[in-house]
Amino acid sequence: MIKYFTCIISGIWNLAKGLFVTLKNVFVKPVTLQYPTQKLEMTQRYRGLVDLYPEKCIKCGQCVKICPTACLDLSVKAGEGADKKKEFGHFKYNMELCCFCGLCEQVCPTQAIYMNKIYEIAVYEHGKLHIDLLDKDKYDEWANPDVK
Amino acid sequence: MDDTSLKEDIGTEEFWVNMGPQHPSTHGVLRLELKLSGETVVDGIVHIGYLHRSMEKIAENRTYTQFIPFTDRLDYLASMNNNLAYVLAVEKLMGIEVSDRAKYIRVIMAELGRIASHLFGITTFVQDLGAFATPLFYGMREREKIVELFDDVCGQRLTYNYMRVGGVSRDLPNGADGKIKGIIKYLRPKFDDLEALFNSNPIFTARTRGVGVLTASKAVNYGVTGPNLRASGVKWDLRKDEPYLCYDKFTFDIPVGNNGDAWDRYKVRMDEMRQSLRIAEQAVLGLPEGDPTVKAGRIFRPEPGETYMRSENPRGELGFYIVSDGSPIPFRMKIRSPSFSNIAVLPDLIRGLKIADAVCVLGSLDVVMGEIDR
Amino acid sequence: MIIPVLTLIIMLIVGAVVLGFIAVSAMFLIWWERKVSAHIQTRYGPMRVGWHGALQSVADVIKLLLKENITPSGVDRLSWWLAPFFAVVPVVMVFVCIPFGNIFGIELIARDLNIGILYIMALTSICVLGIFMAGWGSNNKYSLLGGMRSAAQIVSYEIPLVLAMVTAVMFAGSLSMQKIVEAQKGLWFVFQPNMAIAFAIFIIAGTAEVNRTPFDIPEAESELVAGFHTEYSGMKFAMFFLGEYTNMFVISALAATLFLGGWSGPFLPPVIWFLIKTYGLVTFMMWIRWTLPRVRVDQLMGFAWKVLTPVSFANLIVAGWILMK
Q1: Mapping DSSP to helix (H, G, I), strand (E, B) and coil, where does residue C111 land?
Q2: Which of B232-236, C107-111, C284-288 has the lowest mean pLDDT?
Q3: Mean pLDDT throughout B289-313?
Q4: Are C141 and C313 in contact (CB under 8 A)?
Q5: Mean of the pLDDT values across residues A140-144?
Q6: Which helix (H) or strand (E) holds B87?
Q7: Which residues of B are less than 8 Å from A25 in CB distance?
Q8: B151 vs chain A: nearest CA distance in angstroms?
Q9: Domain assignment present for B6
Q10: Residue B15: which of B346, B355, B350 has the closest Cα?
Q11: Chain C residues close to A18, C-beta within 8 Å
Q12: Is the pLDDT reported for residue C9 higher than 50?
């Protein structure tokens, strides 16, 4: 009989302890962000979309070779100048396949290919995910989603 | 109408319920077929394969470095540990020795990854018991600190791709060790809070104690590993029994349960998080200098041969069996995933329990479908 | 001729006011619950529609009203269609004899029945019929399990609930709600030791009565998807929702009336006191919901029969002994 009541009392006490924990958290400032108005700052090393400094690129093709999902496509043609310096044919980036692993960025000997800080990458059309890396303003639409 | 047909008309009958792949508590896309007699589970059949992505076949078409991002997608709650298990296997195959700093960084990352994974595991388990989202949110809030650190270190929040064969992809950023110490300091009292919510809660104990008892012999026979095995009373932890990296340099205990019920599985995870904090603390204090990084572009050509390397993941032993034919691409890879063995024991455990308990057992086993289906 | 028409008009006005109050109260409670749960979980909750999302429930109601009314194949049409009404109508009928207090001497109670408590007890147990019909009619195994569970639950919880009410009735010496409130003018019942126990039993059994965590086993999201209302959508689902939140209000209002002195209280007007007490109890129920895990169905029954029923019986006997003394 005594055990019966101590069981009830201790049960109530332990429930109260749990309730106290949740009560304590009511007075903690909410940790979530109000997303479209408040945005998370991306870290220094954040791996967003693949981007390119065309002038730094030496067209070595290591990024294309290491990409696990084959989302980069580089074609190079011999230059018309006297030194026969290699020139871009095209440099395509298929974001549908990209797994954002960052290997291309790390393998690049001249830091020409890098990953930017854009993370709002939802689009309505497949076509928009096929990106020409040589295009200067390819990410304008993503970087400033409010600008139409 | 005679007596027998009347009896048939109003008699009871067992029925099948299809639980999942769309069900709030099947942790992804597990499908359970439950044969019920009223509320009681008579039989259960586990169907897997809804998340199959041919990881092992993909591995046969990727170089050793290229496969690291794919290991992130195995057990997506403990990507760091998967990375580690894979690169350890390749290192064993190649016979590469890793620098001290890389070892320490790997230990820190693996232990923090373990905490993040266990936080998720415990809190989703309690969510399955019906504590609506609140413990889950607390767990996620605590996990967020670790995820933020990982984001700082490697640039992603879920698919880290941090470990490299022979080291890690990048050194810790400036001030990271202070940050890790801060996280350790932050997490300790938070674990107390979580324990105050569950440990002596009469409803929680009533729901978990004695539910889904997994005996030690059955656990061993089924190949159950990790916290689920230790909860059954088998003291088997690869970090102690087959030390890899530099786990033999740290002092830590291995929490073991007695009964192998859902409560023990919860308690072992909870205690393990504290031990992981201990390891991480020792590792960050003794962090040696040096260069842990390796070149990403290196092509590995192992000698023809085969190797098997296993390591202690949050959910159990994750093993990689790699066969090399001397080319830069593995000839064959087999992934031994802990959740796959752990889920196999489920039908045995839920027989004779109520539906609510079946959900409780599933939650306490803490399986991740990405790993089961690969 | 004039008088019956006048009565009819007054009845219609009162009915409209009560229905309006129920709708607004339910919408407020839904918003409030979302806010309470959010802050317990260190979130903000709804923030977009109106001040701190105050109009969120209005937006949700509009959405539910505009949704297509889906009837799955193979449902038992009669019970499928009637179930939502069975969940709402009895709860609305309870409002007939809930004393809200008074404004300028006008008593805010539709009709002070002399068997008020009996009437309420009878009506609140009809709600479960709606749940059971929904579970039976939906042609879904999860719903069926939910319906069965709710039937089992109500059988065990009606008894301690009624016994706790009877303790208050014995002290007040009347079944009329107004009389019970007036009996507590001096000291609220809850400050007497055995009434405090009755109050605790009432809150626990009441939580079970309105199917909220830790006793939400007919719904049991993590086990039965959504229990009895798995198949319901649109307006019918909204009716269940309305029923649930109004039921919560009713149970809290009853607890406030029976144990916390109803609308009586110093300084503030009676209506304010009544609402403060009621919504305070509702908030307490929400706080419990967002903290505790769910009990298993057999544990729930064990708890009801082994703990609540004997304790409330013993409590009743002690109360009788005190009154006889």
Answers
A1: coil
A2: C107-111
A3: 84
A4: no
A5: 71
A6: helix B79-94
A7: 138
A8: 7
A9: no
A10: B355
A11: 291-292
A12: yes
DSSP state of B251: -
Number of domains in chain B: 1
Query: C interface mutation test: which of A3, A19, A24 has the most C CBs within 10 A?
Result: A19
- Note the pTM of the prediction, 2 decimals: 0.86
Distance CA B358, CA C28 (A): 36
Shortest alpha-carbon distance between residue C193 and chain B (Å): 24
φ/ψ of residue A89, rounded to 5:
-85, -70
- The domain segmentation of chain A, as residue ranges, is 50-143
**How much is the average pLDDT of C27-51?**
87
**Residue B2 domain-assigned (yes or no):** no
A121 touches chain B (CB under 8 A): no
Tens digit of each residue's pLDDT (9 = 90 or more) over B248-292: 888 888 899 888 888 888 989 999 999 999 898 888 888 888 888
ipTM: 0.82
Considering CB atoms only, which of C41, C292, C311 is closest to A18? Answer: C292
Give residue limits of the domains in chain C. 1-66, 75-324
Distance CA C258, CA C264 (A): 12
Range of the domain at B83: 12-373
Facing residue for C44 by CB, picked from A19, A22, A30: A30
C-alpha dihedral, B198 to B199 to B203 to B205, nearest 10°: 130
Name chain C contacts of A30, Cβ cutoff 8 Å: 38-39, 42-44
The 10s digit of each residue's pLDDT in B169-200 is: 888 888 888 888 899 889 888 888 888 888 87
Q: Chain C partners of B350 at a C-beta cutoff of 8 Å?
A: none
Closest CA in chain C for residue B126: C293
Domain annotation covers residue B1: no
Q: Which of A24, A47, A106 sits opposite B156 (nearest CB)?
A: A47
Q: What are phi and psi of B306, to 5 degrees?
A: -140, 160
CATH 3.30.70.3270 fits A50-143, yes or no: yes
Reported as a single tens digit per residue, the pLDDT across C134-182 is 888 888 888 888 888 888 888 888 888 888 888 888 888 888 877 777 7
Task: Give chain A positions within 8 Å (CB) of B151.
Answer: 43, 45-46
CATH number at residue B187: 1.10.645.10
